[in-house]
Write a structure and sequence with these properties.
Layout: E1 2-6, E2 9-14, E3 22-26, H1 29-44, H2 59-70, H3 77-87, H4 102-114, H5 119-138, H6 169-178, H7 190-200, H8 204-208, E4 215-216, E5 221-224, E6 235-238, H9 250-257, H10 276-296
Antiparallel strand pairs: 1-2, 2-3, 4-5, 5-6
Helix pairs in contact: 2-3, 2-5, 7-9, 7-10
Length: 297
């Protein structure tokens, strides 16, 4: 350990063979001496952790690297990009990792809540940052003494949804799709989209990514690829005598085989089963169901 005075301040330097030099400046010589002794004890016990990278790495740079690595892994990269853009509007991303505290993220949580963000949305944003910081500590070499996002600051998530169609609501949706006078003009894809969603019980992403090559109408077998499932495991649904309660029932086949007007353009993200027009119709019907639900309540 070596201490020297320069321009009214005391600089302590600790050097070990085969290790990176440790330097820090203090206003008082006693503080510099105390720091030097403490670091030397940690080095002797092999407990010293270098925080120099964390002191010059911002949270935003860590989030950017984390986002780049995740974009090739997630099913919906646009959502990840949107989440990153929302987080970057906060001033917390400009702070260095070593300076982050739980209070910074508590303030982020409160600010997002005031903006009207749902509890589940805030939890996902905090989790996005938490995973990025954990990777920075364990992989990127940015060690900090304590993880600044404890579970205690995360808001409570809303209870799981168990909403189902009440009596008469299915008929109301069908009337809307078929163009009842009091509603808008008919859309030939909506009724099929509703029947397919109800009868197949597939998640929305599974419906929108389903293609004809993964369906056998004759065998009544439908394959959901692993990259499109929530669990990341490929699923095969069939309707046979041995498995009469599975997904691909007669009404599902009927919904898929129903004649529809040809599209003027080729879909970009989907095949014939759930093409671009059907995807748009699904989202519109979902919005309509939510609006009806709010009116009934």
């Amino acid at each position: 350990m070596y201490i020297r005075k320069r321009k009214g301040r005391y600089s302590v330097s600790i050097r070990r063979v085969g290790a990176k030099a440790i330097n820090k400046t203090f206003a008082k010589k006693s503080d510099a001496h105390k720091f030097g002794i403490d670091i030397e004890l940690q080095l002797q016990r092999k407990r010293y952790k270098d925080t120099s990278n964390a002191s010059k790495t911002t949270l935003k740079s860590v989030l950017e690297r984390h986002l780049t690595e995740r974009m090739s892994e997630v099913r919906e990269p646009k959502k990840e990009q949107s989440r990153f853009n929302t987080i970057c509007k906060s001033q917390v991303v400009d702070k260095y990792l070593i300076d982050l505290t739980p209070n910074d993220f508590a303030q982020f949580r409160d600010a997002r809540s005031i903006e009207g963000a749902a509890g589940a949305t805030i939890i996902r944003e905090l989790s996005f940052m938490s995973v990025a910081i954990r990777k920075a500590i364990k992989i990127y070499g940015c060690w900090i003494p304590e993880h600044p996002i404890p579970n205690a600051i995360k808001p409570k998530e809303a209870p799981p949804r168990n909403r189902r169609l009440n009596e008469g609501e299915h008929n109301l949706l069908k009337e809307y799709c078929q163009g009842a006078p009091k509603y808008k003009k008919p859309n030939p894809y909506w009724c099929d989209a509703i029947d397919f969603a109800i009868e197949s019980a597939l998640r929305l992403n599974e419906q929108l990514t389903l293609t004809w090559k993964n369906i056998s109408i004759e065998k009544k077998v439908m394959t959901i690829l692993a990259k499109h499932t929530k669990t990341g495991v490929q699923r095969v649904d069939s309707h046979t005598r041995e498995n009469p309660k599975s997904t691909l029932r007669e009404r599902v086949v009927k919904a898929m085989k129903r004649d529809r007007p040809p599209l003027k353009s080729v879909p970009v993200d989907m095949n014939d089963v759930m093409d671009e027009a059907v995807a748009k119709a699904v989202h519109q019907v979902i919005d309509q169901v939510r609006a009806m639900s709010m009116q009934n309540e």
